[in-house]
Amino acid sequence: MLKNHNNNTKLLLDISNEGRRAFTLPECDVPSQEITDKDNLISNINLPEVSQLDLVRYFTNLSQKNFSIDTNFYPLGSCTMKYNPKVNDQIASLDGFSGIHPYQPQETVQGAIELLYDLQKLLGKVTGLEGVSLSPLAGAQGEYSGLLIARMFHESNGDSKRNIALVPDSAHGTNPASAKMAGLEVVTVKSDEEGNIDIENLKELANEKTAVFMITIPSTLGIFEPNILEITKIIHENGGLVYADGANLNALLGLVKLSDLGVDICHSNLHKTFSTPHGGGGPGSGPVMVNSKLKKFLPYPVAEKNNNDYNLIKPENSIGTINGFYGSFLIAVRAYSYIRSLGKNGIKSISENAIINANYIQSQLKDFYEVFSDRYCMHETVISAKKQKKNGISALDIAKRLLDYGVHAPTMYFPLIVEEALMIEPTESETKETLDNFISIMLKIHDEVTNSPEVVKNAPHNVFHKRLDEALAARNPILKWKK
Amino acid sequence: MYPKEIKYTKDHEWVRVNEDFAEIGITVFAEQLLGDVVFVDLPDVGEDLVQFSKFGEIESVKAVSDLFAPISGEIIEKNIDIDKFPETINNDPFHKGWLLRVKIKDNSELEQLLNLKDYEKLIDEK
Q1: Number of neighbouring beta carbons within 10 Å of residue B52
Q2: What pLDDT, on the 0 to 100 scale, is given for residue A7?
Q3: Res. A372 pLDDT band, cuts 50 70 90
């Protein structure tokens, strides 16, 4: 294959040659100005000096090594990058959206604020939580904002002794981190053997110090918590608020409103569920949604409509602003375009297809790989390589072998409560043929584990780089280029 | 593979007692499950451990996991070598890969721990 001839690992600095230029500026045609503050200038900053053609080849070759959703099946799913319809990028590149500036007076960007207002409304409808701020720039920032809102709520009730965040062990890793950042103490709630929240344990832990209970729904096991109504009732009876991590919202669109489950606050990652760039692209966006009694605490700005005017306002008891300007505006445009182009029924079919695709894979693999739970899953299924481990093959080996077959490795060793976990999220966009191909590859690997384990153990064989030394990279990272 | 003279927890830590003092580490089973260890976050000398409470974190190429104290006591020494060479834990978890040395607070706590036979039974079930 011709591609392999370009297996060039040299960096731009390695091919640098003094005096070479990829681009030369035209001669200066305005008066020059002497730089006065010369002490702050650095002369040797070691920039690569290459010709334009070398530069183009360098980046083109790199881009061809890229393994992406646009080239291959990518079962990391919405968590990392589901397929983003190209029309969203087209809409976001329209001059009226891309050519405006955050310092423009509000009356000259009424259309843009109207879009933010409409998107707030749409997200409010999807989750049932009508107070929306698009300001947070990522899921973790949405969580952080939501937790500050919970704290402000309790404090405004004179209830400032509430400082505990209850977090199940099946929650997303960012949940306890955000709670800590927001000044709360984290207490872990156990899962039972089925992967559900241990109700008895929750009852013991919920009390007058509970500020908020954080739940990822569906959980990281891809399971819809069957006792969710009882759980939210227990928290509310103890005076706490319920926070839902919306990272797995791809399973709930048009099917379940978080407000109906007793959720008070949630965030949604636009870059996961609402089809905006992610996974090295970005920027991210993590709007926070709250019920009507918490609306006044939202981070500003929030878009509002008065008669025919649209304004960006600061809610009465706002927790403050958490970044500059309005959040990631062009990302909001993409999410808006995605939701509006699909419509109410289209949005619902996202989750329906995501769920049926994951269940199809689970049903076809469960005789060969151990499945964490035999129940129907939501948008993702967690299988385990426990059986294969007996032949000396780990989840890592299977993930590496998948690369040989042109499939991106799924999430491994997460969630932590499943041994040798492989988490598979196909998303709504894949055809049955693609799913069948993936299933047949997984069965082939299962055969190899029994008949030629060495092939799996030493995988990958057909990619640019064999196994990378992850331990060495983590123990002795070299973060700066050296001659 | 597993030393007989030491006691184990169901969370896969071990403790080796020498009169009033104890040495603490993680077992081969834990080390193999974790994979290559890249970082260990331990409390400082002088701090107190409380039996079965979290006292630190261990990070491998796979995941970050909590460490739980097999016994209560004051930390008198920590293994500074593993800062530089975390692979020591993978290479020799029961000896050179020890994590902390503590002054035991209450010897009777040892009764809460597993002997080799019970621990082997526990990991066989896994």
Answers
A1: 18
A2: 55
A3: confident
Please judge whether B65 and A416 are an interchain contact, meaning their C-beta atoms are less than 8 angstroms apart. Answer: yes
**DSSP-derived pairing of the beta strands B13-18 and B21-26:** antiparallel
The tally of CA atoms less than 13 A away on the side-chain side of residue B63 is: 21
Highest mean pLDDT: which of A60-64, A74-78, A311-315, A374-378? A311-315
Cβ(A372)–Cβ(A378) below 8 Å: no
Instruction: Tell me the H-state helices in A108-216.
Output: 110-127, 139-156, 174-181, 199-205
Nearest to B63 among A413, A470, A471 (CB): A413
The complex's ipTM?
0.73
Q: Provide φ and ψ at A136, rounded to 5°.
A: -60, 140
A342, A360, A385 — which closes off a domain?
A342
Give this prediction's pTM.
0.87
* Structural domain boundaries enclosing A284: 88-342
Residues of B in contact with A416 (CB under 8 A): 63, 65
Work out how many domains chain B is built from and give that number.
Answer: 1
Instruction: Provide the shortest C-alpha distance from residue A471 to chain B (in Å).
Output: 6
The separation between CA A277 and the C-alpha centre of its own chain, rounded to angstroms, equals 10
Residue where a domain terminates, one of A313, A342, A371:
A342
Q: Would you state the pLDDT for residue A315?
A: 97
Q: Provide the domain limits for residue B101.
A: 7-105+113-124
- Which residue out of A400, A412, A423, A470 would a mutagenesis test of the B interface target, given it has the greatest number of B Cβ atoms within 10 Å? A470
Record: contact A475-B86, CB cut-off 8 A: yes
The alpha-carbon gap from B36 to the nearest alpha carbon of chain A, in Å, equals: 6
* A475–chain B nearest CA distance, Å: 5
- A-contacting residues in B 39-98 (Cβ below 8 Å): 39, 59, 61-63, 65, 86-87
Q: Kind and range of the H or E element at B75?
A: strand B73-78
* CB-CB neighbors (< 8 A) of B81 in chain A: none
